[in-house]
Amino acid sequence: MSRLSVRALRVLTPASAVASLVANAIALCSNSWLHSTELMPNPYYNGSGDREQLAKNTVSGLWKMCFNEPAMIYINMAL
Known about the structure:
Layout: H1 3-29, E1 34-41, E2 53-60, E3 65-67, H2 70-78
């Protein structure tokens, strides 16, 4: 390996270790570190004014999982 590669590894290895420790600390201390949106197909979509996909938003953490299902509410209202 060249000297430049060794120097880069000496800098990047501790930097990535610190970044992983920070990410783990955030995961342990926070209850809402993962925000996700899932697009589900709308079973009642027929090309008209209905939405083709319904969004399900989820907020989770290490200690609890909170979720809401507006898609199910929307489907039940359409019936």
